[in-house]
């Protein structure tokens, strides 16, 4: 895949970039390694000051950064601004809390281990490689970079090839904030070069957000090198609606949960599992609300849904929808590629999903909602868990017994009650099963890439 900015709204290639040569890759890894050595001698206060300065730069450049995101991957300009501001918030969160999160503990009774004193501490580990996707070109990276740098590590970024301008922007952001030169470096490389970088002895760990095959590949390489990994590999999140739910709010939230980021988020709600008592009412309202969304130019402030990020992504989505329609599903709205330039796809609602359809099990990365009818909470739980994924989930109910059933029973990294799945710096983020291993964000995220060291004194 060429390293290029191809505007999804037009299909026009706006800029192309040369991949880094092997010599440039080696030099950038060396810069990161040297920066890590320098970072080890800095304090939390030093790093917090630099991180806040970088956040200030990001906010000062809000409009240009947001326009860059919309141009490269097609999200609406309003959502691009929101992503930039969320990044600044996440950076300040770790500037404020990193020292607290990485403060070790002392044994109250060191004599139990035959010592006069004993404690633990968290130390940085070195250069960490991040392999990141295009759907949140800044936020996906910041949620790794902010904690990693605040812990005293250095970062390398292999970004998706269709968001090179975002990669190059991040390449300079932290240094402009004051971090040592090379503390965060982007590599403009194809996927075929990742293995060589990961096997470099100066690179000590990796994190990947992306497809399941990519995650398995990186995990396999890292395992053979005995290097730690964190993986977030997507999901097919359930959105369960029970009879006691506030239907009006559930429908409004369902629309946002399915179409945020043009439907291209790992934690978008994708499978809408609705109790039979309210199924028809929910489906009618949901269909009307999805049909009312304005699809168009993502730079237009009035646009609700922009194009998909890539032509191949639209082809994949079309394949899933056509398979379902061919096997008896009904499109109550959408379901067909519109005429015209760009990689647009309409908000689509499909009902009558059955187990023989690909949409029953596979992730739809675009504004396509699958609606299921169920007879009980237990049936809803069964369908929700009948997937290889386990990232997040949402449940709409006012019944405390049902709430407890779903919180305990859902196979997912998170359960949102009467709301939509979203990532917050304050909460750990990640999944189980084929959705990945490890956690990002919160205290758990910053502790993924540190050495927990025990200190014993006679």
UniProtKB/TrEMBL annotation:
Which EC numbers does the record give? 1.2.1.16, 1.2.1.20, 1.2.1.79
- One of the record's GO molecular function terms: succinate-semialdehyde dehydrogenase (NAD+) activity
Which Pfam families does this chain map to?
Answer: Aldedh
The record's listing under SUPFAM superfamilies reads: ALDH-like
Task: Tell me the superkingdom of the source.
Answer: Bacteria
**Which PANTHER family does the entry mention?**
SUCCINATE SEMIALDEHYDE DEHYDROGENASE [NAD(P)+] SAD
This chain's protein is named Succinate-semialdehyde dehydrogenase/glutarate-semialdehyde dehydrogenase
